[in-house]
Amino acid sequence: MPEDDELLVRVRACGVCRTDLHVIEGDLPVHRPGVTPGHEVVGVVEGFGAAVRDFTVGERVGVAWLRRTDGDCVYCRRRSENLCPASLYTGWDADGGYAEYTTVPAAFAHRLPGELDDIALAPMLCAGIIGYRALRRALLPPGGRLGLYGFGGSAHLCAQVAIAEGATVHVMTRGAAARRLALELGAASARGAYDVPPEPLDSAILFAPVGDLVPVALRALDRGGVLAIAGIHLSDTPPLHYESDLFYEKELRSVTANTREDAREFLALAARHGVHATTHAYPLSQAGQALTDLKAGRFDGAAVLVNDLS
Ligand SMILES: [Zn+2]
Ligand SMILES: [Zn+2]
C-alpha cells in the first residue's frame, strides 16, 4: 500500500535496464533483499495516500530510478539531488515495476508527454534520462563531434538528442545489429568497440560497463575533450598513461543517477525532437528471458515488459 505521500500505480509497461541486471547479479550491494527490480515504469494512478493533493485516479504517470531524497542536505540545496546521501532508488531500495502494481512518492512521479505510447515511453524513464544527463556531463560544444561507446537503450536515445542538436555522432560498439541501428538513426559512423573513430572527438560517453574502454575512449579525444562514464557500474580500468590519455586537458567525469530537473528537460526535448525508443516487448511473466537476452546482447534498443497479468 502507498504511504501518506505516495501513489499506488498499476503498471502498464516497465523497461528493462542494465541496472536491474546489476541489482540481481550482485554487482551492486544489496539494499533490500529480494527486491522487485524495475525503474522505468509507465502506469496509471490507482490510488494515493492522504497527503497527496495534485494527482487524480486514472492519470498516467512515470516512475523512475530516483525515488526519494531528503531535500535538505548541501547537495539537494545546490540542485544536485542526484548526489543526496539519503537518496533512495526504485527497484533497489523499494520494490519496482516488474510487478502488477508499484508505489512512488508523488513528488518523484513524472507526468508524461501525451503523444507517446506506454511501451515507447518506458525506456525514456531511465535509459533516456541518464543518457541525457551523460550528454550534458560530456560538455559537447555546439556542432561538436561525439563518440558513443556502447549502443544499447541509453545510447540510442542519447544519440537522437545529440543529432537533433547538431552533433556529429560516431558509435563504437560490439554488436552488428546495434551498429546498423546507429547508422539508421543518423550516426556518421559505426565501428567495433575498440576501433578508432574516423576523427578526433570533442566529447565521448562510455555506456558499456567495460573499464578497458576508458583509455581507448580517452585516446580518441581531441585536446580539451571530455569523457563521461554513464553507467552505475564499471569493471576496473587499466592503468592510465598521463601523456596519451589525460594530458592536453582531457577530462574524465562520472555520471551519478539524475535529478528530477534532468527528467523534465529530457522528456520535453524527447517530445519536441520526436526521440523514439527502439523497443522489444516481452510479457511481464517473461522478465527473466528479457534479462537473459539483455545480458547476451540479443536485441538492439531496449526491452520493455508489458503487464499481461492485470
Ligand atoms: Zn539531500
Ligand atoms: Zn536504469
List keywords for this structure.
zinc; oxidoreductase; 7-stranded mixed beta sheet; 15 strands; 2 domains; 310 residues; binds zinc ion
Q: What can you tell me about this protein's structure?
A:
With 310 residues, this protein is α/β, with parallel strands linked by helices. The chain has 2 domains: 6-125 and 278-306, Quinone Oxidoreductase, Chain A, domain 1 (Alpha-Beta Complex), CATH 3.90.180.10; 128-254, NAD(P)-binding Rossmann-like Domain (Rossmann fold). Helix content is 27%, strand content 25%. The chain contains 10 helices and 15 strands. It has helices at 18-25, 74-77, 118-121, 127-137, 153-164, 176-184, 213-220, 242-246, 260-273, 287-295; strands spanning 6-16, 41-48, 60-63, 66-68, 88-89, 101-105, 109-111, 145-149, 168-172, 189-191, 201-206, 221-229, 251-254, 279-283, 302-306. The strands form 3 sheets. Strands 1, 2, 3, 6, 7, 14 and 15 form a 7-stranded mixed sheet that branches. It has a 6-stranded parallel sheet with strand order 10-9-8-11-12-13, sandwiched between helices. A two-stranded antiparallel sheet has the order 4-5. Strand 12, helix 8 (242-246) and strand 13 form a beta-alpha-beta unit. Helix 4 (127-137) packs across helix 9 (260-273). It is globular, with a radius of gyration of 19 Å. The two termini are 17 Å apart. The mean pLDDT is 95. One zinc ion is lined by residues 17, 19, 39, 65, 126. Its EC number is 1.1.1.1. GO terms for molecular function: alcohol dehydrogenase (NAD+) activity; zinc ion binding. It catalyses: a primary alcohol + NAD(+) = an aldehyde + NADH + H(+); a secondary alcohol + NAD(+) = a ketone + NADH + H(+).
